[in-house]
Amino acid sequence: xxxxxxxxxxxxxxxxxxxxxxxxxxxxxxxxxxxxxxxxxxxxxxxxxxxxxxxxxxxxxxxxxxxxxxxxxxxxxxxxxxxxxxxxxxxxxxxxxxxxxxxxxxxxxxxxxxxxxxxxxxxxxxxxxxxxxxxxxxxxxxxxxxxxxxxxxxxxxxxxxxxxxxxxxxxxxxxxxxxxxxxxxxxxxxxxxxxxxxxxxxxxxxxxxxxxxxxxxxxxxxxxxxxxxxxxxxxxxxxxxx
Length: 242
Known about the structure:
Layout: H1 14-32, E1 40-44, H2 50-57, E2 61-65, H3 69-77, E3 82-83, E4 97-103, H4 112-125, E5 126-137, H5 139-142, H6 145-149, H7 159-168, E6 171-180, H8 189-205, H9 208-216, H10 220-229, E7 232-240
Parallel strand pairs: 1-2, 1-4, 2-3, 4-5
Antiparallel strand pairs: 5-7, 6-7
Helix pairs in contact: 1-2, 9-10
């Protein structure tokens, strides 16, 4: 049994559930530009199941692997067929998927070795011309909170590191977007300005002095939730070479 098998998270609030649902709808629209009709999709780490629900509503063929027993059992109770397995490897056949989607997963892999193996496995299970979509936290703005946010965060993720990882395994980067938490997918000038402003305002919140002060006055949990919600994320879409 791996550490991720025992991983669990707090239940989503109704507000955050709506945020994740809207985010997933936008992500689905974005990925639609890269998918053929009747695409076959593999999600690694479906978590609460927002992407699974959206894919199934669209009538596309959906498959998923969830390392966490907590999330897997919850999704199976909702009727989804979710495989229990550690990743990597990806225990599936070769060249059978049009899309592999993994949001907030790769940073949980133990090291660059497993991250490289994961990229190799994704390339193996994707059809030629298939698409990989990764969503991950940007360590360059998270700093030390990257490790404090979840005990499973081990592989440091930045846009340059992930790009190098994927191109080294034979992928072409076709799109990269910066987002603020789960609040949008596609960039724009206004969103980029807002994201940078928030990152600037968040800088003092990340300092030890502010953390110690808020913990001292009993607001440590609020401080953690603000940092967890307003984080700098990156969306990468990469295509397997023909």
